[in-house]
Amino acid sequence: MNTSQPNERDALATWAVADGLLPAVAAEPAETPLDRLLTAFERHVASEHDTVIAYREMAESTADPVVALLMQQVVDDEERHHGLLQSMAARLRDTLAWTHSPEALPTRGEPTEAEAKALVESLKTFARQERDGARQARDLARQQGSLYDGLFTLLLETMAADSEKHERILAFVGRRMEQRLADA
């Protein structure tokens, strides 16, 4: 193998550009962390596309209403997750290309000071209610053990996980409103 070929090719390209025979092309920028994140989002959604279709078919074709209920919950969650990932990917593409697309995840907002003040206290109360609800659901789940083959335990545990997720979301929104007040 002739290892000098790439150097000869580069020398020829440099000569052709210098003589105006080829247009000068800027080198591709190195991949950034945002590029890698965008690629990861797109790959995740693409890789699960067929799986979500299979989940939906299972939910719609089963004769077992429990399986249908649970599989539809999975489908609903996956579709919501994919929608969020697609909006996040659109936001990254907009950032990388200096564009603005309507499907991009919003990242800014300007609530009024009055709105931020009103939300902060309510959000703290709601977060506390979600935390208490999660604890109660987990307690009930432990007490129900094998009732209906563990179906109630499963549903109560997933509700508790949802309440914990809601608590994290409410805490984030509360911190965001507090920051808006501090910036005002």
What's the tally of helices? 5
* Low-confidence parts: 1-6
Calculate the terminal CA-CA distance, rounded to whole Å.
67 Å
The coarse silhouette is: flat
Largest sheet: none
Quaternary structure of the protein: single chain
- Radius of gyration from the alpha-carbon trace, in angstroms: 26 Å
Overall mean pLDDT stands at 88
Helicity, in percent?
over 70%
Helix vs. strand class: mainly alpha
| Total count of strands | 0
Count of discrete structural domains: 2
In N-to-C order, the SSE pattern is HHHHH
- Strand content is under 5%
Record keyword descriptors for this entry.
184 residues; disordered N terminus
SSE arrangement:
Elements: H1 5-18, H2 33-61, H3 65-97, H4 113-144, H5 151-183
Helix pairs in contact: 2-3, 4-5
Structure report:
The protein has 184 residues and is an all-alpha fold. The protein folds into 2 domains: 32-105; 108-184. Helices cover 77% and strands 0% of the residues. The protein has 5 helices and no strands. The chain has helices spanning 5-18, 33-61, 65-97, 113-144, 151-183. Helix 2 packs antiparallel against helix 3 (65-97) and helix 4 runs antiparallel to helix 5 (151-183). The longest helix is centred in the middle third of the chain and has 33 residues, at 65-97. It starts with a helix and ends with a helix. 10% of the residues are buried.
